[in-house]
Amino acid sequence: GPDTSHLQWDFNHPTSSPWNQAVISQLMCLLVDMQNNWTIETRSDQYWAGKITQKLTWIKKCFDRAKPCVCDNLSVETSAEVATRLVNHKDETLMKARRDMQQQTAMVATKEAKGNDDVIAWWFLHSVITRLGSDGMSSEDSDGEDTETIFCTHTLPWRRDIIKELTLIDQQRLQESSIF
Q: Rounded to whole angstroms, how far apart are CA atoms 77 and 74?
């Protein structure tokens, strides 16, 4: 199994592989030891195993994205081309975040122009989304064209439960598709 002093995730196999499950198990043992010194709410082992798996899956996604791709002429990308592709991907992600924020502002402004009674609540929700930023509510986009964007909140121990409010924003966005 994995060496406890030098843990390595196997990026070539799924999370469910025996090796990666052993890594998660050893990380869980380290986490349980550290958790005794924490002042935050105690979480279940299943919760922490899920968070470890989620983080390592995200790292694998970044790792895979940074691998050189095969070009149309069957040559392999150079490191400069990989860097350019990664910068372009980041720029596209930031552009999408800006566009999403502009759409949120347009939706609230439209409600205000219509004279809706709940416009104050919508401006409050807009300020929450602005404060959370793009990391507070992330979209899980698929490359398929027949899918819709699903927003998932990052549950942080210090953050109030606002899932209902964020779900309301998503539902409103889908209902008022003409704004977007």
A: 9
